[in-house]
Amino acid sequence: MDSDNDGSGHVQTYTCDGKPDQQIIACNDGTIRNMAKNYCLTPSNTGAGTGDLTFQPCELYPSVPDYQKFKTGGSRSYTDASGIKQTGYEYKNVKSNLCVDVNASGGHGNIAIYNCQNSDDQFFYFRNRGKVVNSGRLRNQKSGQCATADNTGWKSNIYTTPCTDSRKQYWTHYENGEVLKHGIKHVYGSRW
After folding, report:
1. 118 φ, ψ to 5°?
2. CB 54, CB 42: distance < 8 Å
3. InterPro entries given for it (predicted)?
4. Rounded CA gap, 171 and 137, in Å?
5. What is the pTM of this model?
């Protein structure tokens, strides 16, 4: 799920790039938000809870309206290419009780609210990386130096430097093969 660059506007499928507009949070109040602007998933026809989905400012006072709330429906499990079990869910708009759907064949395109059909393009999942295999400093065998990120944000250059106690040198290796800077929950680009 991806929004127009800055975390607002139209919602569509797009190649995963790990940027904050693709970091999605299912909140306890029923809203689905992105980390870029903390905007809520909102259907274009708010009166009916239908139409194309966009990320718009959340309406929290006096309470979240039903058209900005979602609940889970059915679920499906499968094993991904890394051998990790993933569980996808239908997300239904509370106002219309209809499903979040990729508005095109093949799973690519704009995302909208549509009649629930128990089809693959209506199941979404928060990717499971599997168990933590290892964590700590990632040391180069030849130099003895540690892999170091140049900042603590979501996007960093990586180089080797003498090992220290810096958080920039702590990494987590997951069962699916991904290695992430410790404390970061997403990867920019492909696997390391």
Report:
1. 55, 35
2. yes
3. Ricin_B-like_lectins, Ricin_B_lectin
4. 6
5. 0.75
pLDDT in tens, 45-65: 999 999 999 899 999 889 999
CATH domain 132-181 topology: Trefoil (Acidic Fibroblast Growth Factor, subunit A) (2.80.10)
- Characterize the bridge pairing of strands 24-26 and 8-12: unpaired
Cis peptide before 65 (omega within 30 of 0): no
**Alpha carbons 39 and 173: distance in angstroms, whole number:** 31
Give yes or no on whether 9-124 and 132-181 have one common fold.
yes
Is the Cβ–Cβ distance between 96 and 50 less than 8 Å?
A: yes
Sorted by where each begins, the domain ranges of the chain are 9-124, 132-181
Q: What is the mean pLDDT of residues 73-90?
A: 92
Contact 25, 13 (CB under 8 A): no
Which CATH code, of 2.40.50.140, 2.120.10.30, 3.30.420.10, 2.80.10.50, is assigned to 9-124?
2.80.10.50
Residue 63, both tokens: 């309470």
Question: Tens of pLDDT along 147-179?
Answer: 998 865 556 788 999 999 988 899 999 998 888
On the 0-12 / 13-18 / 19+ scale of CB atoms within 10 A, 179 is: middle
Identify the pLDDT of residue 91: 95
The DSSP element (H or E) to which 174 belongs, if any, is strand 170-174
CA distance 79 to 95: 33
